[in-house]
């Protein structure tokens, strides 16, 4: 079965990384796949070894009406059995219209849990034979907006458990790389600097944590529009010596095994690839009870959950974990096993392929 995949993201993380995993798995199963992505995007080079072809085209977002024609031309050229739309930024709507005009069934991956207006849902989702939610939390949002149980399928995102693993943990390297002292504990958060990720909740919680564990450093990995504002808040709170901003890193598989606790107090989250990576590396996690996060973080098994915005609860859980190495080790081992059992790349690829097979020959509602 030949599939054509449309990914509008320019950076190789989150959803785009899942697309590369999927293309790799499809090739291993003898299923040809073609990728369509923006000019100059990081996914293009990463996907070339796995895709039958990679087409780089102009993708200018929701207002790019011309994307319909460009995608139609490629669908006509490639003649896929199914079109898989992996992102928004216009590719969801315009890709769905292009597939419908060419008579090819389309599926849409939904990676975020923010609701959409019901009138828009009713019209837009008619374009898709199936919607693939990357978490049960997202699936429930879509069902609540009126989609049928037959149309929405949950296929979890995956993590490369060979790349992300507890060992080796080179803590001497971590200390040298980030200027940490040997006796300092480490918290880490890896997320875009946008409001819904919960950086402000963490900063509110940190003074209480530091009052009990003053030799703690927090590493905030990532980039985004809120970065400068968060840096200002850190300075204003007098936390400049305790909070570091290492930026976006491509070597988290080396960093994470050396961290003591992963923090992610998000207010909205489709699933959380960084949490899968942290769990695969054997880290205990404290995160927000939002979206698909409870599918990764199971209280008293591999971490703890807080209600979004509850800085006091966050501080308490972090304080407890920093003071209990045995609990951290137990949670970390359970998290690694959870990922191996439920979030493998093979399971994700097989789940998507099953959706394709169910859709071929069927038209969207």
List the keywords.
alpha/beta; Glycosyltransferase_grp1; Rossmann fold; 6-stranded parallel sheet; 365 residues; 16% strand; 7-stranded parallel sheet; hexosyltransferase activity; Glyco_trans_4-like_N
Descriptive account of the structure:
- The protein has 365 residues and is α/β, with parallel strands linked by helices.
- It folds into 2 domains: 3-158 and 344-359, Rossmann fold (3-Layer(aba) Sandwich), CATH 3.40.50.2000; 171-342, Rossmann fold (3-Layer(aba) Sandwich), CATH 3.40.50.
- Helix content is 41%, strand content 16%.
- It contains 14 helices and 13 strands.
- It has helices spanning 15-28, 42-47, 67-78, 91-101, 118-124, 136-144, 171-178, 199-212, 227-236, 252-255, 273-280, 311-322, 325-342, 345-359; strands spanning 3-6, 33-38, 53-57, 82-85, 106-110, 130-133, 152-154, 185-190, 216-221, 243-247, 261-264, 285-288, 303-306.
- The strands form 2 sheets. A 7-stranded parallel beta sheet has the order 3-2-1-4-5-6-7, sandwiched between helices.
- Strand 5, helix 5 and strand 6 form a beta-alpha-beta unit.
- Helix 1 crosses helix 14, helix 3 (67-78) packs across helix 4 (91-101) and helix 8 (199-212) crosses helix 12.
- The longest helix has 18 residues, at 325-342.
- The protein is elongated.
- This is Glycosyl transferase, group 1 family protein.
- Residues 174-337 form the Glycosyl transferase family domain.
- One of its GO terms (molecular function) is hexosyltransferase activity.
- Residues 15-163 form the Glycosyltransferase subfamily 4-like N-terminal domain.
- It holds the Pfam family Glyco_transf_4.
